[in-house]
Amino acid sequence: MRLQILSEAGRASAPRPFTIPQLPSLPLPLSSTMTSARLIMTTAGSEVEAERLASALVAERLAACVNVVGPIQSHYWWRDQPETATEHLLLIKTTAEAVERVGERIRSIHSYELPEFIVLNLESGDAQYLAWIAGSVRKP
């Protein structure tokens, strides 16, 4: 990308290259191999329900942490009709061992007929944070 700078007289001066300065890299101890940590996403129809889900998962040690984000707008198909809803997104940090139990618990207390349940494998992250997730989730 090149920027054109105007002189005080309003004439273009010679273009000068624009460079983005390099930021210092963070000295984090990263785990670069596939980890046992998982990120599960689900949504809830209200903040009250999202807080109830988050509290249950953490209290029962099925998750190390649950972030409640929202409100958000969701657009989706349901029973052959396009729908729109205001929801709250839950980002659930857990382990591979706990994924099935998290899904069962969400389905048991969720108001939706078919709650969103998407599991993402975490490829890498801060080694200490990943160890904290593993140590915070109850083993089966």
* CATH secondary-structure class: Alpha Beta
Global shape: flat
Following the backbone from N to C, one meets helices and strands in this order, namely EEEEHEEHEEH
The major β-sheet equals: 4 strands, antiparallel
Number of helices: 3
Please name the CATH architecture.
2-Layer Sandwich
Strand order of the largest sheet: 5-6-4-7
User: What structural class do helix, strand and pairing data support?
Assistant: alpha+beta
Please count the beta strands (DSSP E, at least 2 residues each): 8
Calculate the mean pLDDT score and round it. Answer: 87
User: What are the low-pLDDT stretches, counting only 5+ consecutive residues below 50?
Assistant: none
Question: Percent of residues in beta strands?
Answer: 35-45%
Distance between the termini: 55 Å
The figure for the number of domains is 1
* Helical amount: 10-25%
CATH fold annotation:
Alpha-Beta Plaits
